[in-house]
Amino acid sequence: MTNTSFVYVTYIATTPEKLWEALTNSEFTEKYFFGSKIDSDWQTGSKVAYSRNEQITDYGEILKSEPYHLLSFTWNHVNDQAYREKPSWVTFELKPMESTVKLTLKHDNLLPGDIVDKEDTFEGFNNGWPAILSNLKSLLETGETLPPISI
Prior knowledge:
It is built from 4 helices and 7 strands. The chain is of the alpha+beta class. The chain has a 7-stranded antiparallel beta sheet with strand order 1-7-6-5-4-3-2.
């Protein structure tokens, strides 16, 4: 079975410290991640969970946490347990470039069905991550998120 990766790169006029806070603090994630809160102590081996309306939607374990540089964790969507043996994983890499930060998102270990067969997951990877990261970029650069969109 072939595993697939989804990669998205954006450049944000911010500092690594502000971007790290936006990735790891619920006050930020609720604004740009469609109302999702995030919870973790950000230590390697610790749990991480995204929740909406007090319901966990996605969860995992921190694989690597290097503040202001790299954050990687396993990713389990609550509905994926029925067909997935191993979780996928998400990595955020932050690279300072003068007054900008290059943010690279990689979502690895995706199964062919994640991309092709499951329409909701296809929409999530091809519209969700870009919409989330565009919202994050707008929030950090202007203080406002983008107008609501339907993904």
